[in-house]
Specification:
Length: 247
């Protein structure tokens, strides 16, 4: 996916990440934070479980974690420093879990503060079904889970783009190419196109996936200079031995 990253700074003015910083503890900021929290709640839930939080407490730990972020507005300082949502959450949730234990879970269920209503109904089922090396560090698995969540959201964005423009057959025929499994002859027969046209369409699909990934990443970093580095880290996490899960 060798496509030049989009470096237009204006695209960062309306990202959810910048809204959290700009709007402080307002309803607007809570809505933006809530959207991000819902999008990436499973990696956090799984991280809490791998830190030893029991299943019946893990959802409360994630909910109370975000309630604390709303109450303290810690995220604004991270955004101002061009931090990354992923890195901040990993460290902050680990500290939050330690604090819950130290205070005998005094902040369980958010301590009466605002909750974001994160839906984690199937989180434990997904966690149990996930095959992970028992010796892998929780932080390492979190990076993989985060990368998979970003990729899944980018794929959903890409699919909506193609289906919304009436190109569902193209997406369905060429999606295997995104995993390196394209058979130009078979796709050509499916779509009634020449193999050369299929290769061009497949290249375009990969370009659009790259753009969709960058769009997702823009919502979780503090500035355009972070996008390329974050994308590289995402690819490294996906290339790790334990990351092979179909999206």
């Amino acid at each position: 996916m060798n496509v030049e990253p989009d470096s237009d700074d204006s695209q960062f003015h309306t990202t959810r990440w910048s809204l959290v910083a700009a709007a402080g503890n307002s309803e607007r900021a809570r809505e933006a934070l809530g959207e991000l929290a819902q999008a990436y709640s499973f990696p956090l839930y799984a991280f809490a479980r791998r830190l030893g939080v029991p299943a019946h407490d893990a959802e409360d730990a994630v909910q109370s974690f975000f309630a604390r972020l709303i109450a303290t507005n810690d995220l604004a300082h991270v955004v101002e420093g061009h931090g990354r949502f992923r890195s901040f959450l990993r460290v902050a949730l680990k500290n939050h879990v330690a604090n819950l234990r130290a205070r005998e879970r005094a902040e369980k269920r958010g301590g009466g503060r605002v909750r974001l209503g994160i839906d984690l109904a199937d989180a434990e089922e997904r966690f149990v079904a996930d095959r992970v090396d028992p010796g892998a560090a929780p932080e390492e698995v979190f990076e993989r889970d985060w990368a998979l969540a970003v990729l899944a959201r980018a794929m959903a964005r890409l699919e909506a783009e193609y289906r919304g423009s009436g190109r569902s057959p193209v997406f369905d025929a060429l999606r295997p190419h995104l995993q390196g499994e394209l058979d130009p002859g078979q796709a050509a027969r499916q779509l009634g196109l020449e193999p050369g046209a299929i290769r061009v369409a497949a290249h375009r699909l990969r370009q659009r996936l790259r753009a969709a990934l960058e769009a997702e990443i823009r919502d979780t970093v503090g500035g355009p200079e972070c996008v390329s580095a974050e994308l590289d880290e995402l690819f490294r996490a996906l290339a790790a031995p334990d990351s092979g899960r179909e999206v």
